[in-house]
User: Which sequence fits this backbone?
């Protein structure tokens, strides 16, 4: 499964306590972050196995372990496969590329004047890639499927179109976010007076086939 964060007990609804869970199948990473007001405990469940880093200390945790991180400590977790993947090949950071610097590509299931742009190429930042699509209606991005890729759309200001994933159809506008799991047919339609304007993020859930050692 892709990493999923689930809130079980919301902040401020039981005094100072809150509770949630995170699940995911490697290679995946929860980046370094900090809670300036929160002390935090992790209780790995049966079957868990990951590397946890807090305050510069790195430990391997499995189901049944317990960790405590006080307020003000940077912390995060990753699995070994991520380390291997990014060590073998990755972009040199920092890297800033605006839309004007993107290279363009064309897929045969899209309308004639759809602008498809690649911002972070596949396989160059671990399992992540990023691009953008622009176009004015009437137009379309035909139904297609990604068998290995989880996909998010972040709608930019002015966007307005209808997005379909399997049997669900919704109208989206600027500021909306969609998530489509791998193996789901999806596509979009843009009516007269509407436009496509969104950034997409893709994550290859289990790594690109044959490339994770």
Assistant:
């Amino acid at each position: 499964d892709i990493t999923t964060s689930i809130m079980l007990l919301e902040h401020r609804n039981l005094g100072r306590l809150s509770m949630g869970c995170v699940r995911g199948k490697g290679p995946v990473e929860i980046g370094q972050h900090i809670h300036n007001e929160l002390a935090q405990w992790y209780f790995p469940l049966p079957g868990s196995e990951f590397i946890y880093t807090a305050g510069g200390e790195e430990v391997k945790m499995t189901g049944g372990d317990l960790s405590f991180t006080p307020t003000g400590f940077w912390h995060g977790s990753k699995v070994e496969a991520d380390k291997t993947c990014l060590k073998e090949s990755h972009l040199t950071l920092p890297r800033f590329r605006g839309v004007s610097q993107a290279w363009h590509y064309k897929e045969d299931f899209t309308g004639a004047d759809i602008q498809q742009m690649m911002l972070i190429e596949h396989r160059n930042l671990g399992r992540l890639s990023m691009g953008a699509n622009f176009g004015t209606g009437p137009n379309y991005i035909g139904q297609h499927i990604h068998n290995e890729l989880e996909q998010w759309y972040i709608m930019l200001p002015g966007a307005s179109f209808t997005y379909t994933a399997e049997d669900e159809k919704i109208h989206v506008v600027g500021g909306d976010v969609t998530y489509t799991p791998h193996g789901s047919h999806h596509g979009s339609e843009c009516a007269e007076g509407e436009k496509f304007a969104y950034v997409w993020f893709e994550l290859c859930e289990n790594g690109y086939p044959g490339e994770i050692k």
About this structure: The chain has a mean pLDDT of 82. Helices lie at 80-88.
